Amino acid sequence: MSTPEHSPLGKTTVYADRYDPSLLFPIPRQAKRDEIGVSAPLPFHGEDIWNAYELSWLDTRGKPVVALAEFRVPATSPNIIESKSFKLYLNGFSQERVADRGNLIATLVRDLSAAAGAPVEVALTDAQAQGHAVTDLDGMLVDDLPVDIDDYGPPRADYLTADKAQPEVEQTLVSNLLRSNCPVTGQPDWGSVQIRYRGAPIDPAGLLRYLVSFRNHNEFHEQCVERIFVDVMARCRPQQLSVYARYTRRGGLDINPYRSTGTEHPGNPRGARQ
């Protein structure tokens, strides 16, 4: 069955060092989308951007090669790929001889697209610091607001308000205080989130309380971002909205979901904690 409880999460695992696409474990998105009232046509566009820092294989002479990988999974795909299974799959290339990067990319695209149920984009870059600058998400940081907080879950959408009596603004709000938990292992997932919108001014203190209320919430990264998008749209009614979360890595992978009313493709800015 393709439910989180049947995935490799939380289970003792033998790490294979040979290529095995059957290790990939897809989990349908729709069950969690049903919880927040999302169905086709989706109310957002977007993608899940994965960065892999532990990818290695052998060249035709048997010499190891390393690279960084970027994967873009469209939000329209019917499945997410469970992260531990993704890690196990990538580790399987460590003792495989690969003719060249083109062949490796073609294999990754084929296997990941099959698991996600939609075309996945793959890019490889050299493992040098040049070209991989660390940067902050742009926007107004709300974390230093002098607010009292004593609510850490479940998420409270009623904290979100916008002042409809005020003129429309274009604003970007950022917090580094996002934390949620793996729904299977309970391990914490730490992240930063950027909310860019055009509409009535959103109360930043209420937004901060709302984001902190995810602190004891059990949900995958992609599901948290979709919940945030849906809640902000429902409570604040912006004309335009994008939600971008940059999570810290686990097992050599970080996951960075992006959901937007627009069709733009986000950049991939590596944060200080990534």
Q: What does this 3D model show about the protein?
A:
- By secondary structure, the chain is of the alpha+beta class.
- It is 20% helix and 29% strand.
- It folds into two domains: 4-125, GTP Cyclohydrolase I, domain 2 (2-Layer Sandwich); 140-260, GTP cyclohydrolase I, C-terminal domain/NADPH-dependent 7-cyano-7-deazaguanine reductase, N-terminal domain (GTP Cyclohydrolase I, domain 2), CATH 3.30.1130.
- The chain has five helices and ten strands; from the N terminus they run βαβββααββββααββ.
Question: What is the fold's blueprint, element by element?
Answer:
Elements: E1 26-28, H1 30-35, E2 45-58, E3 64-74, E4 79-81, H2 83-91, H3 101-116, E5 121-125, E6 140-141, E7 169-181, E8 188-199, H4 204-212, H5 221-236, E9 240-247, E10 253-260
Parallel strand pairs: 6-7
Antiparallel strand pairs: 1-4, 2-3, 2-10, 3-5, 7-8, 8-9, 9-10
